[in-house]
Amino acid sequence: MPKKTIYWLCGLLVLGALGFYGFTKWQETREKVDLWTVVPDDAVFVIETNNAPRFVDHLQQTDLWATVSRMPYVLRLEDQLSLLDTLSSGRIQLKKFLTKKNVLVSMHVLGRSDFDFIYYVPVKTVGEHRYIRTLVENLGRNPEYRQELREYQGFQITDISHNGNKENLSYFSYHNNLIISPSPVLIEEIVRKINRGQLESPAKDYKTTNYLSQKDVYANIFINYQHLPDLLGVFLRKDLQGDVNLISSLCRSSLLGLKLDNNRLFMNGFSVPETVEGSLYSRLKGHAPKTFKMKDFLPSSAAVVLHMGLDKMGALKGGPGKDGPGFVDTLANSFAGELGLCYLESYDTKTATEKVLFAQSSNPAYTSALLNRLQPGRTNGTEERHGKNVIRLLTTRELPEQLFGELFRGFEQVYYTTLSDYILFTDDVQTMRTLLKEVEAGRVWSKSEALQPLLEQTQQEDNVGLYINTANAWNLLMRGMSTEKQTALVRNSSIIKKFNHFSFQFSAKEERFYTSLLLRHQEESSVKAVLASAGFRQEDAFAFKSQLLTSAFLTQYPVDRSDEVVVQDSSLVVYGLGTQTGKQNWTDTLESPLIGQVQQLIYGPDNRLKYLYATPNRIHCVDKNGKDVNSFPFTLGDTLKLQHLTAFDYNKNGDYRLAADDNLGNLYLLDMQGNLQTGWSPMRLDSRLAAPPQHHKVNGRDVIVVVLENGFVYAFTTQGETYPGFPLNLEKNLRSTVYAKPGISFRRSLFTTVTQDGQVITFDLTGEITKREQLLRTDRRSTFELVPEVGGKSFIIARTDPGRVALYSQDLKLLLDRRFVTSSRKVIQYFHFGGDRKLYVITETGPGKAYLYDVQAQPLGQEPINASSPVTVRYHEVQNQYTVFATYKDAVQKIIVQGRD
C-alpha cells in the first residue's frame, strides 16, 4: 500500500478519534445532572429555590427586611453581589442570571467549631457561559484578588483569595453546573463523591415531593437530623449534647416548603422517622398527637417549652426496668396526654434557670395517691397550702427522670401540686408559688395578646413541640452557649431578639410526621414612626378640682377588671378613675392624707377585689362603690403616725393579716376584724422600720422579716417570737428594703440589702452574713438604696450624690450615671416586663420632672415628663409601648412612650 494512503488512513483515524472524544465530551456537558445527587451526605441543611430574586423582592417588602438586612452575613453577601455586578460588565446582571434558575445551597459542619456552605448553580445558555467567563477574567485582572488553578482527581479547581481579608472561594464546573464554596475541603469532598460514582441524593426519601410547584412556596428546605447535633455542638456547651442527640433522634430527615409573610417565616412538610433502636421515635411510635391545652397554665414568663403528647408517658424512659414493671412504671403510666418541660425567664446568666414540669393525668387523684406513697408522712415542711392548692415535697432524687427519662433530669427533689388535670413539678417551692400566682392572675399564654398570633398559627396538636420566647430565653441561651460563641451571640443580640417567637412541631400522620416550623418577627406598630420623632404622646389628661397629693396607683375596677387609677387630692377625697374613659368609678372622703400604697385584695363574701389603704392612724378597706367593708376602718390610736401598711396571706386562702408600723418603731399585726394578734400588740422595736415588713414561707414555716433603720434585722414567727440567729446586726444604717430569694431551707434562703454607705450585704435565715461587698462612694454625701423591680423578681442599686444618680445591676455592674440640674431628692423606680423590656425612672421632686431610661440606659423621649410623684407604668408587648400614668398639679396624665428596638 502506498505510504501516502497509509498517512491518509492514519489521519482519518486520528480525526475520528478526536471527533469521537469531542462528541463524548460535548455529550457529557449536555447531560443533565440532578444537583441533589452531588450534595455530600453530611449536609445538615439543603435549600433549593427556583427564583431567588423573587424571594428577595418579596422579603424587602416585609417588616422582616429591616432586621434581615442588618445581619453580618447578609451585609457581606450584598457587598459580594455588588462586586459581581460590577465585574460582569455585560448586559446580564446577577439578578437576571439567577431568575427562574434552580439553585441549591447546602450547609456542612467543619470540625468541632465551624461550618460552611456549598452553592450549586446551573449554567444553561451560551450567554450565561459568557457571563461567567467575563466574571472570572475580570476578577483575574483585579489586583485585590489572586487566582490559582489546580488539578484534583481529574477535575480543575479554581481557588480565588482576597489579598486583604484572606477570604477564599473555590469552584469547579461539572456538567454545566458551577459548584462553589468558601471551603476547598468541601469542594474536594464533592469531587471524591463524583469519582466514586455513587451519586445519590441525601433527600432520596422525598423523590416525588417538590413544594416549589406550589405558588406561594419559595424554597424546599431539607433537614438532616443525623448531623444536626454536630451543627448545634458548634454553638452549645458539651454537657447539652446528650439531650440534643436524643431529641434529634425523633426523625431522620425533613423536607419542608418555605413560605413568607409580612412578619413571619414558616415551613411545612413531612419528616421521616428515625427507626434505630433507642431513638426518641422508638419510644413515641404509635402515640397519637395531643392538643396543646397546656397553654392555659403556661406563665407569661416562660422562656423555652418542650411539649410532648403521649398515650402513656412511661414509654418515654424506654420500657420497664431489668426486673420487669414496678411501682415507678405504674406511676409513670398513670400520666397520659401532655408532658411539658417549661424553663422560666432567668434574670442573669449566673443563676440556675427555674423550671416547671407539667404532666397530664387521666385521673389526678389516683396519680396523687401514688405520688404520696413515695413519702407518706406529713411532717413540718413537707406540705403547705396555697389557696386551693396543696404543695407537697417529695425527696425522691431525680423523680422526673425516673418517670419520664433522661430529658427530665435536674430535679434533685420535687415539689408538686395539682392544677386541673395536670401534676406540676418544680425543684424549688418559691418557683411553684410564683407560678400559681401567675395562673391566678391570668398571666398565662392563652390570655397573652402578644402570643395569640403564634398560638393561632402553630399546629393545635403535636407529639413533640419546641417553643421559644427569644426575649425571655436570652439569658438561658447565653448559659447554654459555648464560651467561644457567646461573644458572637451578644454582638448580634439586637437582631436575634427581633425574632421573638419560634416554634418547631411534629405530629404523627400515618408513617411520617407532619412538621411545621414558625419564626415570628416582632410586630412593627403603625404608630412607631409617629412616636419616634416625638418621643412621647399624651393620650389624655384627667383634670381635678384640687391639687393631687399622691401618685396614680394603678388598680382594677372590681366590676369588670378594667384598668383604673386611684389618686387623692388636697381636699382629701380618694378617686377611682377609669383609664380609658376618665370616668369616676367611685370616691371616698378621708380625714387625712394617704400613707404608702393603695393595694387590692380579694376579700369578702362576694369574693371580689377590695381597696386597702391607710392614713396616719387608720386602716381603710372599701368596695367597688367606695363604701367601707364590714369592721373597717380601724383606728389604731389618735397620736400614731403610720409609715407602712402591708397585707400578708400566709396560705394564699384569703385569711389576711395586716402589718402596720409607725414612726416610733412599733409594729402592729391585725386580722381583718381589727383584732391585734398575740405577740403584736404592738411589737416594740429599737428603731423605725427601713421598709415594709415581708412574709416568706420556708420549709413549711412562716417567717416575717423586719429591717430597721439602725441596721438590725429580725426574723419573727407569726406569734412574734424571734428565730434563732436573730436579731442580726448589720452594723450599718439602712434606708432600703431587702431582696429575698427564699430557698428550700433557712440556710439556702438568701436576703440582700445595701447600707446607706454602700455595703451590699447578703445574709441567710440562720442569721449568718454570707457576703459583704463595698460599692464605690464618689462623694462623702453619697447614699445608697436597693430598688426592687415592681414585680419583685430582681433589683438594682441606686447611688445618689448631690445632683447625680448612678444605677448598678444585681451583679454590681454600672448601668447608668447621670447628672441633674438640681440637688433635690430623687425617687428611683425600676420596671421589668420580661427580656430587655426594662425601664428606669428617676423623678426629681424639686422641679417635678420624671426621666425615663431604657435597658441601654438611653433616655426615652427628648424631654422629661412632668410628674409631682413617682409614676406608674403599664407595658403593651405587641406594640412595644409603655403607658405612663403621672400626676402633676391637678391632673393625671396618660402618656404613651414608644419602646426602642
Could you describe the 3D structure shown?
This is Outer membrane protein assembly factor BamB, contains PQQ-like beta-propeller repeat. The chain crosses the membrane at residues 6-23. InterPro entries: WD40/YVTN_repeat-like_dom_sf. By secondary structure, the chain is an alpha+beta fold. Among the domains are: 1-31; 38-202, no CATH class; 275-520, no CATH class. It contains 19 helices and 54 strands. A hairpin with a 5-residue loop joins strand 26 (573-578) and strand 27 (584-589). Helix 8 (228-235) packs antiparallel against helix 9. The radius of gyration is 34 Å and the shape is globular. It starts with a helix and ends with a strand. The relative contact order is 0.06.
Radius of gyration: 34 Å
Task: Kindly report the average pLDDT value.
Answer: 87
Number of helices: 19
Category by helix and strand content? alpha+beta
Low-confidence stretches: 3-30, 525-534
Transmembrane segments: 6-23
Protein name: Outer membrane protein assembly factor BamB, contains PQQ-like beta-propeller repeat
Keywords: Membrane, Transmembrane, Transmembrane helix
InterPro entries: WD40/YVTN_repeat-like_dom_sf
